[in-house]
Amino acid sequence: MSKFPPGACDVMKQKYPEVSVGALILNKGELFLVKSWKWGDRFTIPGGHVELGEKMEDAVRREVKEEVGINLSDVKFHYVQEGIYSKEFFKPKHFIFLDFICKTKSSKCKLDKDEIQECIWVKPENALNLNIDSFTRNSIKKYLETKGVRKWK
Q1: 87-120 burial by CB neighbour count: b if 16+ within 10 A, else e?
Q2: I want to staple 43 with a disulfide (CB 3.0 to 4.6 A). Which of 50, 51, 80, 132 is the partner?
Q3: What is the pLDDT of residues 15-41, one digit of tens each?
Q4: CA–CA dist 130, 52 (Å, integer)
Q5: HSE of 83 in the Cβ direction (CA atoms, 13 Å)?
Q6: Is the pTM of the predicted complex or chain greater than 0.85?
Q7: Cα–Cα distances in Å, from 135 out to 3, 76, 128?
Q8: d(CA 35, CA 17)
Q9: Band of the pLDDT at 14, cuts 50, 70, 90?
Q10: Hey, CA dihedral for 141, 35, 11, 97, is it positive or negative?
Q11: How far apart are alpha carbons 90 and 34 in whole angstroms?
């Protein structure tokens, strides 16, 4: 039996977990982060839902292009996480997050001004000092581990 947070049943129409893709975008040793009101004005990685019939890699390319106008290359699967009614997100949702490591040649960002309010490029290890959501934090830590930068508990 599912356990919903208090008051969630009134606003919750979700029947199944939502599959969502995210992009850790790298360019010249820096990581691209965006600030979103949906995540309590925290920095996060760009991404969004996978549409029915859409491949995950195509979804991450589409979402990044829509949100910030960046074309991706070298898209590779990175990490999976589950988010169940996280208080960090603006409404109760159950997510399956599929994160990808991607590259780009562009350092320019074109904000959609709907979901994304700000973008920055930062060294991955310095990103952990920012106000980022916990799922982005986990994904960045996993990336740094694969690079041998530091082991995390």
Answers
A1: eebeebbbbbbbbbbbebeeeebeeeeebbeebe
A2: 132
A3: 999 999 999 999 999 999 999 999 999
A4: 34
A5: 25
A6: yes
A7: 21, 18, 12
A8: 24
A9: confident
A10: negative
A11: 16
C-alpha–C-alpha distance, residues 65 and 69, integer Å: 4
Determine whether 144 is exposed, middle or buried from the number of CB atoms within 10 Å of its CB (0-12, 13-18, 19+): middle
Task: Write out the two tokens for 152.
Answer: 């995390």
Q: Which residues contact 118 (CB under 8 A, 6 or more apart)?
A: 34, 35, 111
- Cα–Cα distance for residue pair 85/96, rounded to 1 Å: 11
What is the spatial distance between Cα 108 and Cα 70, in angstroms, rounded to a whole number?
8
DSSP codes joined into one string, 64-118: HHHHH-PPPEEEEEEEEEEEES-TTSSS--EEEEEEEEEE-S-------SSSEEE
Please give the DSSP secondary-structure letter assigned to residue 137. Answer: H
The structure tokens listed for 27 are 């360019």
Percentages (nearest 5) of helix, strand, coil residues in the chain: 25, 35, 40
